[in-house]
Amino acid sequence: MSHTDTAADTTGAKAPVEHLDVLIIGAGLSGIGAAYHLQDKFPRRTYAILESRESIGGTWDLFRYPGIRSDSDMYTLGYRFRPWENDKSIADGPAILEYVKDTAAEHGIDRNIRFTRGAFGLDAIHSVSIAGHSSWPSSTACATASHAPVAAAGWLYIGRAAFSPISRRDN
Fold first, then answer.
1. For residues 22 and 45, what is the distance between their CA atoms, to the nearest angstrom?
2. What global pTM score does this model have?
3. How far is CA 48 from the centre of its chain?
4. Could you give the CA distance from residue 76 to residue 70 in angstroms, rounded to a whole number?
5. 19 partner at 20 to 30 Å CA-CA among 43, 79, 92, 148?
6. What are the pLDDT digits (tens) for 11-57?
């Protein structure tokens, strides 16, 4: 179970600080999959998913133009723990979005999503800067077997180009 303290936000006002074991960035196909595997393999770890938008789905919620579809078959792209059961292997965007949302709801992942909270900075030693919060301690926001803070991403939507290498202090 995570616990919450308060800290001064960027305006100096008190804001909640949630202490977590793992922080997942993005509530798209990959973020929901990562949360499922975390819950399954490490049920005692606390986590949250930061989603900068107001809904689940990532690409499949963001892009809604007519005809959007996957360019990979969903039998391969879908989750092993919840196989794609639709007859269309090359699925359209709305069907994929429904699949992601249903998966999150079915496994209780949607309760761990913090909407309109995007990560805009990460100090691998001290804190994660969250839009709307001053910081979350990285030693509790991220965890690995060695308990050293690590950040990883499978896919990033870059609204504003930025890259900063993240390395462990002991390397």
1. 7
2. 0.69
3. 7
4. 11
5. 79
6. 666 667 778 888 898 999 999 999 999 999 999 999 999 998 999 99
What's at 83, amino acid-wise? P
Q: Which residue is associated with the tokens 């998966």?
A: 103
Yes or no: say if 29 and 18 are a contact pair by the CB < 8 Å rule.
no
Minimal CA–CA distance to 56: which of 114, 95, 142, 131?
114
Q: Closest Cα partner for 151 from 170, 127, 135?
A: 127
CA–CA distance, 81 with 145 (Å, rounded to integer): 23
- HEC readout, 77-124: HCCCCCCCCCCCCCCEHHHHHHHHHHHHHHCCHHHHEEECCCEEEEEC
Spatial distance between the Cα atoms of 26 and 118, rounded to a whole number of angstroms: 8
117 with 52: CB under 8 angstroms?
Answer: yes
| DSSP H/E element including 48 | strand 47-51
pLDDT in tens, 118-155: 776 655 544 444 444 434 333 333 333 334 444 444 44
> What are the φ/ψ torsions at residue 13 (nearest 5 degrees)?
-80, 155
